[in-house]
Amino acid sequence: MSRKTKETDIQLELNLDGTGIADVNTGIGFFDHMLISFAKHAEFDLKVHADGDLYVDEHHLIEDTAIVLGKVLADALGDMTGIARFGEARIPMDEALAEVALDIGGRSYLVLNAEFSAPQVGQFSTQLVKHFFEALASNAKITIHASVYGDNDHHKIEALFKAFAYAMKRAVKVEGKEVKSTKGLL
């Protein structure tokens, strides 16, 4: 999927049945690291090439990448027949501990309990952690509850991305031939 605006140009490919291979270039080193970590731990193959107005700041590029990733996830999951639907994970990273529980149920919502002490990790604004997950949840139509504590912002953010990866890996696992809903569809 591609998304081109006056601010960004995003190309993204995702294979849910992959092995965790990632080819990511956004121009924001820490963001690349988070997306590569997500792909590795979810065992999704992910290609992202993103250009944007980084001379302004990284906001537009991170938001638009999340929008495209969310839309690609929604497209890849289709009507969600057979998937586990729910996923959860607790991931430690040194002193940090992140927890993510999610529902791929066709409704978007984000609850994020996270505080960061530094304004940036590398060229990645810590304010954009919430914004990334909001845009992703909205476009993927998933509900995400996430929390993290710790002392090191790098560890906290990375633990969140890894916990999200493991929760997604569990939620997209095919377990049957029916949609997991009493309504019969999501």
From TrEMBL:
Entry's transmembrane regions: none
Principal subcellular localisation of the protein: cytoplasm
InterPro entries linked to this entry: IGPD_sf, ImidazoleglycerolP_deHydtase, ImidazoleglycerP_deHydtase_CS, Ribosomal_Su5_D2-typ_SF
Classification via PROSITE patterns: IGP_DEHYDRATASE_1, IGP_DEHYDRATASE_2
Top-rank taxon: Archaea
Location in or out of the cell: Cytoplasm
Pathway named in the protein's UniProt entry: Amino-acid biosynthesis; L-histidine biosynthesis; L-histidine from 5-phospho-alpha-D-ribose 1-diphosphate: step 6/9
Keyword line: Amino-acid biosynthesis, Cytoplasm, Histidine biosynthesis, Lyase
GO cellular component: cytoplasm
Reaction(s) this enzyme catalyzes, per UniProt: D-erythro-1-(imidazol-4-yl)glycerol 3-phosphate = 3-(imidazol-4-yl)-2-oxopropyl phosphate + H2O
Molecular function via GO: imidazoleglycerol-phosphate dehydratase activity
Enzyme class: lyase
Any single biological process term in GO: L-histidine biosynthetic process
E.C. code: 4.2.1.19
Family: Belongs to the imidazoleglycerol-phosphate dehydratase family.
HAMAP family registered for this protein in UniProt: HisB (MF_00076)
PANTHER family for the chain: IMIDAZOLEGLYCEROL-PHOSPHATE DEHYDRATASE, IMIDAZOLEGLYCEROL-PHOSPHATE DEHYDRATASE HIS7
Protein name, as recorded: Imidazoleglycerol-phosphate dehydratase
Species assigned in the record: Methanosarcina thermophila
